[in-house]
Amino acid sequence: MAAREILKNMNLFVDGRGYAGQVTEYNAPDLALLIEDHRAGGMDGPVGLEMGMEGLETSFSLSAYDADVLALFGIAQGRTVACTARGALESYDGTVKAVVHAMRGKITRMARGTWTPGTLPALQVTMRLDYYRETHDGRELHEIDLINMVRVIDGVDQLAEQRAALGI
């Protein structure tokens, strides 16, 4: 099928508040495994050993200079900010599917940009995440809970046996 699942629109919710009409950009977290080369005697070359995941980070830009979002910077240790990005994917045949990124973490950077009369302000926010879940048309593709050592990929918990071996 031509033109399948094209992102047509999106919305963002920060700490339960919606920012439709104000969110101008959203950067989904990159998912990356930490791979360490291992070569020992009797091996002709190194093999890559997975050593966990790289840190998760997301960012977004708002055209609103929003006091509620600004107030979330530097919240106390142990507290987190919930953030949800929702997208509408549309195919050429008119089928629309939802994609949802549910995240939790700490706002680590607020870039206020340059203020210029007659132009929209930009508030760029960066978050370091400890939780991320992605669903695509109701199908859970990824659930990553770094603190609780959970990594579910397409319904399979990749770390369940490790947690059991550790007694957690």
Explain what you see.
With 168 residues, the chain is mainly beta. It has a single domain, classed as Pnp Oxidase, Chain A (Roll). Helix content is 7%, strand content 53%. It has two helices and twelve strands, in the order ββββββαββββββα. The chain has helices at residues 67-70, 160-166; strands spanning 6-14, 17-18, 23-27, 33-38, 47-53, 56-62, 81-90, 96-111, 123-136, 139-145, 150-153, 156-157. Strands 1, 2, 3, 6, 7, 8, 9, 10, 11 and 12 form a ten-stranded antiparallel beta sheet that branches. A hairpin with a 2-residue loop joins strand 11 (150-153) and strand 12 (156-157). It is globular and about 70 Å long. The mean pLDDT is 95.
Features:
12 strands, mainly beta, ten-stranded antiparallel β-sheet, two-stranded antiparallel ribbon, Pnp Oxidase, Chain A, 168 residues, single chain, 53% strand
